[in-house]
Specification:
heterodimer; A: mainly beta; Immunoglobulin-like; six-stranded mixed beta sheet; five-stranded mixed beta sheet; 35% strand; elongated; B: mainly beta; 5 domains; seven-stranded antiparallel beta sheet; six-stranded antiparallel beta sheet; disulfide bond (chain B); Cation channel sperm-associated auxiliary subunit beta (chain B)
Chain lengths: 778, 1116
C-alpha cells in the first residue's frame, strides 16, 4: 500500500457553471509534466491533455488553463514552460508568451523573430539578493533539435519580456543538433547540449571548461532536462526509457541505477526495461512513476545515484503526475474530468516515503545520521577579492557509527576550500558531536590547482557549497545535505571614501554656511572643456556646488604634489586605505592639472591607457573601470609604448604618480578604482577639493622683475650714499633750501587743503598724493 | 648549517595543518586509493612508494567496482573541488602535500609532484626511518584513508651494496631441495627492507640471501645474492660445509653467523665501489659443530637521527657446556662488532655448575644486560639483570634473580619487542616482563609444545609465536591475552612482518602476504580458518546474574594427571567469546583455576551478550517431567517423576547441564536408568537437597562434547576505539630537553552501546626507564564514559637517554588494530631544535638575491662584500689579521694584503685548493648562511649606518612546536669571530641572573649575558661577525648562532675633517673679532703698518742717503 487517494473537489455545490474563456492550452496527449515554482511552494503548472495552473497546490477544482483569444495563438500547444520570478513563460505555437500570475495579465515577449520550442532558465530563492533577481531574469529561448550551426538562440535578461539574439562563440562550427541551452549558475557557465549521432555532450562557454566538451553520454530519444533546485549543479535528463543524472552541471552524465538494498539490479533504466511516465525532483530527492505502474524513489547523493522500487499499487493513468510536497512527502496527482462541470477535480495520493522505507523487504539500511546542520543554510554569502569565509556545520552520527562527511563546491574553478572535521563535545545522552569547519577562499589563492584549472580571477562567479554524507543511506530522508550559495564577486556593502582630514572649512578658508547656501563658482573658459579633450571653451562655466553630495572640499595647497587618500569602508566601518590603482577625472572637464609621471617614468612596458582614448573608445567619460582597464605593466599587454612622454594618468598601485595643480579653485573629481584585482565591485565616488595658494597669472617674466628689483635696490643704495654727499655741496645746499621752502609751502597748502577737505569730505584721500609727490620732484 | 632551518620551516608549516587526532580501530573506513610511483597504479595493492634523488611523483586513483565508476568518482570529486592529500610521516616528522586539482578531461588520475627537498634535505647514507604515507580525500577528515610506505632508496644503507654475486631466481630455486630452514632479518628502521637467508644442508654449501626493498610483496623487489665467495675470501684455509646459521641486520652492520664462523660486515653507511666485505670474528676453541648450533640475539631499535648513547649490541650464544679452555659460550659486542667479549662477568666463573646462558640482551633504555639462564640438570630457568658499566655487566645483579617455575621446563630464548621495553621469554611457556627483567608474568602455557620462533611488528605491535608443531599464536605487545590463529603446514617456512605490519609467510619459492589483494575486506588469514580455541570437555553453565554466567569445565575423575590441563580453561581463553552450538554467546571476562568442586578444576566468568539456546523437549524428553534432586555422597542423584511416562533420561543427556534458577547447576555425568541420573554440582554450597523442581522451573543446557562439541571459543571483535591526539603516528619520538616537558593525550572510546562500564583503568602505562624522566599520568572518564589519559613527562636529571612509554588497552581484543601505543621519549636535544637570531629589519629573500633592499631613506640595507674580503683588525683597516675570507674567489687577487701579518693570515675553507669560485661549490644555503664555516661562500651581509647603538640582539629557539624567544636560564656568551673590538653589549641583570652569572662566569672564563633585552653597540666600521653561544648545562643542545653586521658610512678614523673645519672657523672668527675689536678701539693696524712702513722707508732712505754721502765723502 503506497498511499490512500483523496479527491479535491471544491466550489461545485452551487450550480454555477463557469465557462472556459480563451483558447484551451494543451501539452501532449500521452505524457504529463508538472512544473512547480521553485521558490513558491503552492504555485505549480500541470501540463498534459489539459493545462492547469494553480496557486494553492491543486487544493481547489480548476478550470483548464487558457490563453486569451486576443493573443491570437494558432495551435494552442504548449511545448515548454518556465517560471521566471513571478512570471510564467510559456512557449505556445513556437512563440513565447508571458503570464504574470500576480496581475493575471498576458503578454507576448519581444525580439524573437524565429520559431522557438523551449525556454530555459533557473531560479534563485534567496530573497532580497540582487544577484538572485538577476538569476531569475536570465532566460534562454531556443528551438530544440535544430542544427546548432544555423539555429537562432535568444536570451533575455528581463525575465522574458524582451529577447536578444544570443551569440555563442563559434556557433557555426559546432556540428550537431541543439539539445538545449542553459545558464548554469552553479558553474557560472552557459552550456549547450550538443547532440550528435546518438551521443550528447555539454559545451561550455567560458574558460576553463570551454576548451573541450563534457564527457559524452548516450542520447536516446529527446531528453528533457531538469535542473534540480538549489543551484547545486544537479541535472536530470530523462525520456521514456532513459534517466540520466549529473552532479556537475553536465560535465559528467551518468545513468541512474536501479537498486535493491545494497545490490545494483540494473545499471540503467534502459536495462531495467521500464518506461518512465513522469518524474519529480527536489534538491535531494527523486521520484519516478512508470507506465508499468511502479513508483521508484531515490536520493541525489554523492555516490552514483540510484532508485529503488516501492511496492506496487494501481496508481498510473495517462494523466498522472508527481510532485514533492515537502522532503519525504510525495504527491501523486491525477486530474479528473467532471461531466457536470467544466472544472476538473484532482485525485491526490500522498506518499510518505519514510514510512515506506521502513518496509524490511526493501533491505534499506538504517540512517546513520542523527543530526546534520549548519548555520549557513538558506543564506547567501559573498567572497570579494582576497576575502575569506569560515562556515561551520555540526554533525551527530548514530552511536558506534562513523560518517564520511564530504564538502563540495559546485564551481571549484573559482572557489576553493579546506575542511576540518573534529570531535566537539557530547550531547546530553552521551553521543559524540562532531564539528566541521570549512574555510573558503578563492581557488586561485589556494595554490592547489593546475594552472589551467582556475577560471579568470577577474571575473565574478558564483558557487554552491554542499555538505553531504558520502555513506548516507537512502533512508536518511529527512537529512538534507546542507548547501549555501556563495558569490565570488562584489560585496555590495563596500564603498570608497576620500579621506578629508584637512578641509577648506576646518581651515577657515571657506565657510560651510556659504557653501550650503546654493553656492556656485565660475570656471573660466580657459580652464575647462565640456568634452574632456583639453580644448579651451568659449564661455565661462557656472557650477552649482552640491554641498549635500560633496560636503566641504578637501583643502590642497597648490604647490604640493597631491593624491587623495582613498579609504575602503564596509557598511559603516573603516576597512583599510586602498593601495590599488585608480583614476581621477574632473567632472566639469577642468584640465588645469597634470600628472607627475609620464609613461616612461612610470616604467610602462606598453602604452598606458588615458582618459582621451578611453572617452573615445567608450563614447563618454566615467567609463574607465576594472572591466576595461589594462595595466601598462602587464606583461601580456602587447600595445607598444609609442609615446613614452604622455602623462601617466593612473594613480596608486606601484607607481608614485601624483597630481600637480596649476590653478586655484574648486575641483570636483570622479574617482574610479580600476585595479581589477582589488575588488569585484565597481568602486567609484565623487569628491571635491579646493586648491589655494597659486599666484595670479604672471604678465611679466620673472627675469625682468628680478632685474628691476635688484636695480632699484642698487639705485637706492647709491642714492643713500650719494644724497648726503651731494647735500654738502653748494648745489646741494641750494636744493636743500629749496626743499625746505617747498616743504613749508606745502605745509601751508596742506593745511589749507585739509581744512577744505574737512569741509567738502568727498574727495578720495588717495588722490592727494599724486600731485604732492609729483611736485616734490621739482 | 642553514639547511635544518629550511627543514624546520617546512615542517612547521605542515604541522599546523593537522588539527585532530586519528581514531584507530574504526573498522568501516574503506581503503579506496591506489597509488604508485611509476606507471598506472595497480588495484588492491599496498601503496609502496620510493624516493630517489629526483622529485617524488605519485599517481593515484580511486578504487571502485570498475574502471568507469572510478573515473566517475574522480570527476565527481574534482568537480566538487576535492582532491586527495598525502600525509608523509615518521616518528618525528609529518608533512602534508596536496594533489592538485586538474580538469578531469585532462587526466584520469590524481598526480602530485613533490621535490625531494620538501621531504628531506639530506642525501647521505644513514639509518633512516621508512615513512608512512597516508592518502585521504578531503584533507583532515581522514576519509577513505589509505596507508602505504615511502622508502628513501638513496639513503637506506643495505640497499647501496651488493653483498655478493647477483644470481637469478632460477638458480636459487635449484637450492630448494637442500634448504633446511629460512632466516629473515629486517632493517630496524625500514622493515620493508629485509634479508632472507637460506640455511642449507651439507650437500650444497654456501651462503645465499635475498634482499628485498618492498617487503616481499612481489618477486621483482627481491634480489638474490650468492655470498659464498665473499665469506670464503675471509678464510685462510679452504673449508667445507659452509652454510648460513643466523643473521642480524643492525642499523649500520650486517652480522652473519655461518657454520664457519661469525662474519661482520663493514660499516654499511660508507659504501665503496667494491662489494661488501666481511671480517671474521674469532672465538677461540669454537668449531663448526658449535657454530651450527649458534644463535644471534639482537634488540631491534631504530637509530635514525642517532645520538651518542644509541648503540647496537649483538649477542651470540653457543649451545655447549663451557670447558675450562673457553671463557664463555656467550659473547656480545657493540658496534662496530670487532671486539667480542664474554657475556658473563668474571666473578661468575668461580661457580662450578653454573647454568648456561640461553640469551643475553642489552636493555638500552636502562643500560642493563638481561640474562636468561637455564640449568640443564635441574631443568630450571632463571632471569637475571646486571647493570652495564663501561659496557661490561656488573657482577652484582641489579634485582633479585627471578626464578621461573619448574613448569617452564624448556626455555628457548628471550626477546625485546622492537622499539619498546616489553621483554618476552619463550619456550614451552611465554613470559612477559614490563620492568626490564625484574619480574615476569605468565602469558601462555603450551605444556609440551615449544615456541621456537617469534616475529614482531613495531607498527601494529603484533607478535606471532610459532611452535615446534607448527601452531601459530598471536598477541599484541604488552597484552595479557593471546589467541591461536591457526597452523602452518609447510615444513620450511618463516614469517615476516613488513613495515605496515602485514604478516608474510615466506616459504621456498613462494611468498604469501596477509594483506590485500582481497581489497576492501579483512586481511587474508595465512594460517587457515581461525581455529576454535575450545577444548575437549563438557561445560556446565551457572548463572550468577541476569547477564553474567560462569562456565565450569568438567574434568572426568579418571583423567590422567598429565592431560588434566587439556580439560581446563587457560590463559588463551581470556577475552574470548564462547559460542553455543545453538544460539548465544558470552564474552569471557575472567579465567579461574580451582581445586573444588571436584570435577570442575577451572571456570570462566563470562558476560552474556546473547542468551544461550536451551534444550527443547524433543531433544531431551526428561524436560517434560519435574525433577527431584538428592545428594548421594559427592554426587547428586536426579530423579524424574515416574508418573510422566514420556520423560526419560537418555544417553544423549550425559554432559548436559541442569540449570535451576537460584541454585547450583548440575552436570549430568551418568545415566543410572530411565528415570535416574547422576550429576555433579557446580556450586555444592548452594546445591538443593531433596527438593523437587516442577516442570518448566528447571532447564537444560547442552555444552557437552560427546556427540561433537556443542560449544566453541573464538576471538572477540574489536571493542575499543583508540584516539591519539596531536600526532598522526603511533610510534612518535619526542625530545625533551633540560627543563622542558611534554604532554601526551590518548583516549579510549567504547565502540558499542550497552557495553559494561568498567571502573578500573582501561589503559595501563609502562615507562621503560622510570629514572630518566618524571612521568605522571592523569586519567578521567569523560561525558561519554570514554577513558582519557594525559601523560606528562618532564626532564628530571642531567642525563641523556631514551625511554619508551607504553599505553596498553589491556582489555581490548587482539583483533583490534591498535591495542598498544609505544611513544619514545628522549631526554636529549632534538635534531630539530636550533637557535636563531632575528634580524632587526626583515629583508625578503628575493632582495637578498638581488642585493638591493632600500629603506625609506634610500639606504641600501644589503652590502655586497668585495671579493676576498677580510674585516679589518685593531691595527687598521688595511691590516686584516683574521683567517676568514668572505666572498672568496681564489682566482681573484686578495685585497688588503700589503703587510706581512696580513699575508700570513687568511685561509680559504670551502675554497681551499681550488682555482675558481665556481669550484668552491657553494650552495645557495651556504651563500646565505651566517656560519663562519661558510664564510668563503658568504657574499652579502646586512648593512647598517654608523654608528650602531642599541642594536637589539633578539634570539629565538625553534623546535618542533614552534618558536620561543630565548630567555633565562639560557644565558649566552658572545664573541666576535674575527677578534674585533669596538663593540659593547648591554643587558639587564636581575638579581637571580646576577647570581647565575657570578656562578658561571669563572667557570667559562668569559662574560655571560642575559639574552632578553640584549643590546649591541658598535663603534667600529665594516664587517662584524658575532657568535652567540648558549652556556652549557642549561640544555642538551649545542645552541650556537652567528650573525653579521656591516657598518658603513663611518667617518674617517683620523678626525682631520672636523679638526680642520673647527680650526678654520676659530681662526676666521678670531680674526673677525680682532678686526672688530681694533675697529672699536680705533686701532688701525693697517694704517699703523703703513705708517711704520713709510717710516722705515724714510729711515732707510735717510740712512742710505747719509751713507751715500758718507761714501762719496770717503771717495773724495
Amino acid at each position: 500500500q503506497l498511499c490512500r487517494s483523496r479527491t479535491v473537489r471544491t466550489g461545485k455545490v452551487f450550480n454555477l457553471i463557469q465557462d472556459v474563456q480563451g483558447d484551451r492550452l494543451y501539452f501532449h496527449p500521452t505524457t504529463t509534466r508538472l512544473i512547480k515554482h521553485p521558490c513558491e511552494k503552492n504555485i505549480a503548472l500541470y501540463l498534459g491533455k489539459q493545462v492547469f495552473f494553480t496557486m494553492d497546490n491543486f487544493e481547489t477544482s480548476l478550470l483548464p488553463f487558457t490563453i486569451p483569444t486576443s493573443m491570437q495563438v494558432g495551435v494552442p500547444e504548449v511545448t515548454s514552460a518556465h517560471f521566471a520570478g513571478s512570471l510564467l513563460l510559456l512557449v505556445v505555437d513556437q512563440k513565447v508568451y508571458i503570464y504574470d500570475y500576480e496581475n493575471n495579465s498576458w503578454s507576448m515577449s519581444l525580439g524573437i523573430k524565429h520559431p522557438v520550442t523551449h525556454v530555459s532558465g533557473d531560479n534563485c530563492c534567496y530573497t532580497g539578493s540582487l544577484f538572485c533577481v538577476h538569476v531569475s531574469n536570465l532566460v534562454f529561448a531556443y528551438f530544440r533539435g535544430d542544427q546548432i550551426s544555423q539555429t537562432y538562440i535568444y536570451y533575455s535578461n528581463t525575465g522574458g519580456f524582451s529577447f536578444w539574439k544570443y551569440h555563442y562563440d563559434r556557433q557555426a562550427e559546432i556540428i550537431g543538433s541543439l539539445g538545449g541551452i542553459f545558464h548554469f549558475f552553479s558553474l557560472s557557465q552557459v552550456a549547450m547540449l550538443v547532440v550528435n549521432q546518438g551521443k550528447g555532450m555539454f559545451k561550455y562557454s567560458d574558460h576553463p571548461l570551454n576548451r573541450s566538451f563534457g564527457l559524452s553520454f548516450d542520447y536516446n530519444g529527446t531528453l528533457d532536462i531538469l535542473i534540480a533546485p538549489g543551484q547545486r549543479g544537479i541535472l536530470l535528463l530523462w525520456f521514456e526509457n532513459s534517466l540520466l543524472f549529473s552532479h556537475n552541471a553536465g560535465q559528467l552524465v551518468d545513468t541512474v541505477r536501479v537498486k535493491k538494498g545494497d545490490q545494483t539490479l540494473f545499471s540503467s533504466i534502459f536495462e531495467a526495461k521500464i518506461t518512465i511516465h513522469n518524474i519529480a525532483v527536489t534538491e535531494n530527492e527523486l521520484a519516478v512513476i512508470t507506465r508499468e505502474d511502479n513508483l521508484y524513489y531515490g536520493n541525489l547523493g554523492i555516490v552514483p545515484s540510484s532508485i529503488i522500487k516501492f511496492a506496487d499499487q494501481y496508481i498510473w493513468s495517462e494523466d498522472v503526475a508527481l510532485m514533492f510536497r515537502s522532503p519525504g512527502t510525495l504527491e501523486i496527482l491525477t486530474p479528473l474530468r467532471d461531466t457536470a462541470f467544466p472544472a476538473f477535480d484532482f485525485q491526490k495520493c500522498l506518499v510518505n516515503i519514510q514510512a515506506l522505507l521502513m518496509d524490511p523487504e526493501l533491505h534499506v539500511g538504517k540512517c546513520k545520521i542523527e543530526f546534520l546542520t549548519g548555520e549557513f543554510i538558506y543564506r547567501m554569502y559573498t567572497i570579494d577579492m582576497h576575502s575569506q569565509l569560515e562556515l561551520t556545520a555540526s554533525l551527530i552520527p548514530q552511536p558506534g557509527t562513523s560518517l564520511i562527511p564530504l564538502v563540495m563546491v559546485s564551481n571549484p574553478h573559482s572557489l576553493g576550500f579546506q575542511a576540518t572535521f573534529y570531535e566537539n563535545g557530547y550531547t546530553s545522552d552521551g553521543n559524540t558531536k562532531y564539528k566541521l569547519d570549512i574555510f573558503l577562499k578563492q581557488q586561485q589563492h589556494w595554490g592547489r590547482t593546475d594552472s589551467n584549472f582556475t577560471s579568470s580571477l577577474k571575473k565574478a562567479t558564483m558557487s554552491t557549497l554542499t555538505v553531504d554524507i558520502a555513506n548516507k543511506e537512502i533512508s536518511c530522508v529527512d537529512i538534507k545535505p546542507l548547501s549555501t550559495l556563495i558569490s565570488v564577486g562584489c560585496d555590495l556593502d563596500k564603498k570608497i571614501v576620500i579621506q578629508n582630514k584637512v578641509s577648506a572649512c576646518s581651515m577657515g578658508i571657506l565657510d560651510p554656511l556659504t557653501l550650503q547656501d546654493n553656492y556656485s563658482f565660475i570656471i573660466e573658459k580657459e580652464f575647462y572643456d565640456p568634452g574632456f579633450q583639453g580644448q579651451q571653451s568659449s564661455e565661462d562655466l557656472h557650477v552649482f556646488y552640491s554641498y549635500q553630495q560633496l560636503g566641504c572640499p578637501l583643502l590642497v595647497y597648490y604647490d604640493t604634489l597631491w593624491k587623495p587618500v582613498v579609504e575602503l569602508w564596509r557598511k559603516d566601518s573603516f576597512q583599510e586605505v586602498i593601495d590599488a590603482e585608480y583614476v581621477l577625472l574632473e567632472v566639469n572637464g577642468q584640465f588645469s592639472y597634470s600628472y607627475s609621471l609620464t609613461a616612461q617614468s612610470a616604467m610602462c612596458t606598453s602604452q598606458p591607457q588615458n582618459w582621451t582614448t578611453m572617452i573615445k573608445e567608450f563614447g563618454g567619460p566615467f567609463f574607465w573601470n576594472r572591466e576595461n582597464y589594462v595595466s601598462c605593466h602587464d606583461p601580456n599587454n602587447n600595445a607598444p609604448l609609442r609615446w613614452p612622454d604622455v602623462q601617466y594618468q593612473i594613480l596608486g598601485g606601484r607607481t608614485a604618480n601624483q597630481i600637480i595643480f596649476g590653478h586655484n579653485g574648486f575641483y570636483v573629481f570622479y574617482i574610479s578604482i580600476v585595479d581589477p584585482y582589488y575588488s569585484y565591485c565597481q568602486l567609484e565616488t565623487i569628491f571635491s577639493i579646493y586648491v589655494y595658494g597659486a599666484f595670479p597669472v604672471q604678465l611679466v617674466s620673472a627675469g625682468v622683475v628680478i632685474l628691476l628689483i635688484i636695480s632699484s635696490i642698487l639705485g637706492s643704495v647709491w642714492l643713500a650714499y650719494k644724497t648726503p654727499k651731494l647735500l654738502r655741496t653748494a648745489r646741494g645746499r641750494r636744493i636743500k633750501k629749496c626743499a625746505t621752502q617747498l616743504c613749508r609751502r606745502c605745509k601751508t597748502v596742506c593745511q589749507f587743503r585739509a581744512s577744505a577737505t574737512a569741509r567738502a569730505g568727498t574727495e578720495p584721500p588717495g588722490r592727494h598724493r599724486t600731485p604732492h609727490g609729483g611736485r616734490s620732484d621739482h | 648549517m642553514e639547511s635544518p632551518l629550511i627543514y624546520v620551516s617546512v615542517l612547521l608549516l605542515n604541522i599546523f595543518e593537522f588539527s585532530s587526532g586519528i581514531v584507530y580501530n574504526k573498522d568501516d573506513t574503506e581503503k579506496r586509493f591506489a597509488c604508485s610511483n611509476k606507471g598506472f597504479p595497480q588495484e588492491n595493492e599496498i601503496i609502496k612508494l620510493y624516493l630517489f634523488l629526483e622529485n617524488l611523483k605519485i599517481q593515484c586513483f580511486f578504487q571502485t567496482e570498475n574502471e568507469i565508476a572510478s573515473k566517475a568518482m574522480l570527476s565527481v570529486f574534482t568537480s566538487g573541488g576535492l582532491a586527495p592529500s598525502l600525509g608523509i610521516m615518521n616518528s618525528t616528522y609529518n608533512g602534508i602535500f596536496h594533489f592538485n586539482l586538474t580538469l578531469f578531461s585532462d587526466r584520469i588520475l590524481w598526480l602530485v609532484d613533490i621535490p625531494r627537498e620538501n621531504i628531506t634535505q639530506s642525501t647521505d647514507i644513514a639509518a633512516v626511518e621508512e615513512w608512512l604515507v597516508r592518502i585521504t580525500l578531503h584533507h583532515g577528515l581522514n576519509i577513505y584513508a589509505t596507508e602505504g610506505t615511502l622508502l628513501d632508496v638513496i639513503r637506506e644503507p643495505i640497499l647501496q651494496w651488493t653483498p655478493g654475486d647477483v644470481i637469478p631466481e632460477s638458480e636459487i630455486s635449484k637450492l630448494y631441495p637442500h634448504v633446511v630452514d629460512l632466516k629473515v632479518t629486517k632493517c630496524p628502521c625500514a622493515n620493508d627492507v629485509a634479508l632472507l637467508g637460506f640455511i642449507v644442508d651439507t650437500i650444497v654449501d654456501g651462503v645465499y640471501i635475498g634482499i628485498t626493498f618492498g617487503g616481499f610483496w612481489h618477486d621483482y623487489d627481491t634480489t638474490w645474492f650468492n655470498m659464498t665467495q665473499t665469506i670464503y675470501s675471509q678464510l685462510q684455509e679452504e673449508y667445507e660445509d659452509l652454510s648460513l646459521v643466523d643473521m642480524v641486520l643492525t642499523n649500520h652492520f650486517l652480522v652473519i653467523l655461518t657454520s664457519l664462523g661469525l662474519f661482520v660486515s663493514e660499516d654499511l653507511r660508507y659504501p665503496s665501489r667494491h662489494s661488501l666485505s666481511f671480517s671474521r670474528a674469532d672465538f677461540c676453541g669454537f668449531e663448526r659443530v658449535d657454530y651450527v648450533k649458534g644463535k644471534l640475539w639482537y634488540n631491534e631499535r631504530c637509530f635514525a637521527n642517532r645520538e651518542h648513547f644509541e648503540v647496537d649490541y649483538v649477542t651470540v650464544t653457543f649451545e655447549r657446556n663451557r670447558t675450562l679452555s673457553e671463557s664463555s659460550s656467550c659473547f656480545y659486542s657493540q658496534e662496530p662488532f670487532l671486539e667480542w667479549v664474554p657475556c658473563l662477568p668474571h666473578i661468575f666463573k668461580g661457580i662450578k655448575i653454573f647454568p648456561t646462558v640461553l640469551t643475553f640482551l642489552v636493555d638500552q633504555e636502562r643500560g642493563t644486560g638481561v640474562y636468561l639462564f637455564y640449568n640443564k640438570v635441574r631443568k630450571t630457568a632463571i632471569a637475571s639483570v646486571s647493570t652495564l658499566r663501561n659496557n661490561e655487566p656488573n657482577s652484582q645483579s641489579k634485582f633479585p634473580i627471578f626464578r621461573f617455575p619448574s613448569s617452564f621446563s624448556s626455555p628457548v630464548g628471550m626477546v625485546f619487542h622492537p622499539r619498546s621495553h616489553f621483554l618476552y621469554a619463550y619456550g614451552n611457556q611465554i613470559w612477559l616482563s614490563v620492568d626490564g627483567g625484574n619480574t615476569f608474568q605468565l602469558i601462555a602455557n603450551f605444556h609440551d609444545d615449544i615456541i621456537k620462533k617469534t616475529f614482531h611488528s613495531f607498527y601494529t605491535s603484533a607478535i606471532t609465536f610459532v611452535s615446534q608443531r607448527g601452531k601459530v599464536y598471536s598477541t599484541k605487545a604488552g597484552m595479557g591475552r593471546y589467541s591461536a590463529v591457526g597452523s602452518v603446514t609447510e615444513r620450511i617456512f618463516t614469517l615476516y612482518y613488513d613495515h605496515l605490519g602485514f604478516l608474510h609467510k615466506l616459504t621456498l619459492g613462494r611468498f604469501e602476504a596477509s594483506g590485500p589483494p582481497t581489497a576492501f575486506g579483512n586481511s587474508r588469514n595465512l594460517f587457515g580458518q581461525p581455529p576454535d580455541m575450545g577444548f575437549e570437555t563438557a561445560l556446565a553453565p551457572q548463572h550468577t546474574s541476569l547477564d553474567e554466567i560462569i562456565f565450569f569445565a568438567y574434568v572426568p575423575e579418571n583423567e590422567p594427571q598429565e592431560t588434566i590441563y587439556s580439560k581446563k580453561f587457560g590463559n588463551i581463553h581470556y577475552g574470548k567469546v564462547i559460542h553455543s552450538g545453538k544460539t548465544g554467546r558470552a564474552y569471557i571476562r575472567k579465567v579461574l583455576q580451582h581445586t573444588t568442586p571436584k570435577g570442575f578444576l577451572s571456570s570462566v566468568i563470562a558476560e552474556m551478550k546473547e542468551p544461550f539456546g536451551l534444550e527443547e523437549v524433543n531433544e531431551s524428553s526428561c524436560l517434560s517431567s519435574s525433577l527431584l534432586i538428592n545428594k548421594a555422597g559427592n554426587v547428586y542423584k536426579l530423579t524424574l517423576d515416574s508418573q510422566v511416562v514420556q520423560a526419560l533420561f537418555e544417553d544423549t543427556d550425559i554432559e548436559k547441564t541442569v540449570v535451576l534458577p537460584g541454585y547450583s547447576s548440575f552436570l549430568i555425568t551418568s545415566i543410572l536408568d530411565n528415570k535416574n541420573a547422576l550429576a555433579i554440582a557446580t556450586m555444592p554450597e548452594s546445591a538443593p537437597n531433596n527438593m523437587t523442581f516442577l516442570k518448566s522451573t528447571w532447564f537444560l543446557y547442552n555444552f557437552g562434547q560427546r556427540n561433537g562439541r556443542t560449544w566453541k571459543i573464538y576471538s572477540k571483535p574489536c571493542n575499543y576505539w583508540f584516539q591519539h591526539d596531536d600526532s598522526p603516528s603511533l610510534n612518535i619520538v619526542k625530545y625533551i630537553d633540560l627543563g622542558n616537558s611534554y604532554v601526551l593525550k590518548a583516549k579510549v572510546i567504547r565502540n558499542a552501546k550497552g557495553f559494561r562500564m568498567l571502573e578500573i583503568p582501561l589503559l595501563t602505562v609502562f615507562v621503560g626507564n622510570p629514572n630518566l624522566l618524571e612521568v605522571t599520568a592523569e586519567v578521567t572518564f569523560d561525558d561519554t564514559d570514554s577513558y582519557v589519559i594525559t601523560i606528562s613527562a618532564a626532564s628530571k636529571v642531567l642525563h641523556q637517554g631514551s625511554t619508551s612509554l607504553a599505553f596498553i588497552m589491556w582489555s581490548a581484543s587482539t583483533e583490534c588494530f591498535v591495542t598498544t601505543m609505544v611513544p619514545t621519549l628522549k631526554s636529549s636535544c632534538s635534531y630539530l631544535r636550533s637557535m636563531h637570531h632575528i634580524p632587526s629589519k626583515f629583508i625578503p629573500f628575493e632582495d637578498w638575491i638581488s642585493g638591493v633592499h632600500k629603506d625609506s631613506q634610500g639606504f641600501n640595507l644589503i652590502k655586497t662584500l668585495p671579493i676576498n674580503y677580510r674585516p679589518p683588525s685593531n691595527m687598521g683597516i688595511a691590516i686584516p689579521l683574521t683567517d676568514n675570507f668572505y666572498h672568496a674567489d681564489p682566482s681573484k687577487p686578495i685585497p688588503r694584503n700589503m703587510f706581512h701579518m696580513s699575508k700570513k693570515t687568511g685561509k680559504f675553507k670551502q675554497c681551499a685548493n681550488v682555482s675558481t669560485r665556481e669550484e668552491c661549490n657553494c650552495t645557495k644555503d651556504q651563500k646565505f648562511s651566517h656560519a663562519v664555516a661558510f664564510s668563503d661562500c658568504r657574499e652579502k651581509v646586512p648593512r647598517f649606518k654608523f654608528p650602531i647603538t642599541q642594536y637589539p640582539v633578539s634570539l629565538e629557539i625553534i623546535n618542533e612546536d614552534g618558536r620561543v624567544p630565548l630567555q633565562s636560564p639560557y644565558l649566552v656568551t658572545v664573541t666576535e669571530v674575527n677578534m674585533r673590538h669596538n663593540w659593547k653589549l648591554k643587558h639587564t641583570v636581575p638579581e637571580n641572573i646576577k647570581r647565575m652569572k657570578q656562578l658561571v662566569e669563572p667557570i667559562l672564563g668569559a662574560a655571560v649575558y642575559n639574552p632578553s633585552g640584549l643590546n649591541l653597540s658598535i663603534k667600529g666600521s665594516e664587517l662584524f661577525h658575532f657568535r652567540v653561544t648558549v652556556i652549557s648545562g642549561v640544555t642538551f643542545c649545542n645552541l650556537i648562532e652567528e650573525f653579521q653586521i656591516y657598518v658603513d658610512e663611518a667617518p674617517l678614523p683620523f678626525p682631520g675633517h672636523t679638526l680642520i673645519a673647527v680650526a678654520t672657523a676659530v681662526v676666521l672668527g678670531g680674526l673677525i673679532f680682532i678686526a672688530f675689536m681694533f675697529q672699536l678701539q680705533g686701532i688701525h693696524p693697517w694704517r699703523t703698518f703703513q705708517r711704520w712702513i713709510r717710516r722705515n722707508q724714510e729711515k732707510f732712505s735717510s740712512i742710505s742717503l747719509s751713507e751715500l754721502i758718507h761714501r762719496s765723502k770717503s771717495e773724495e
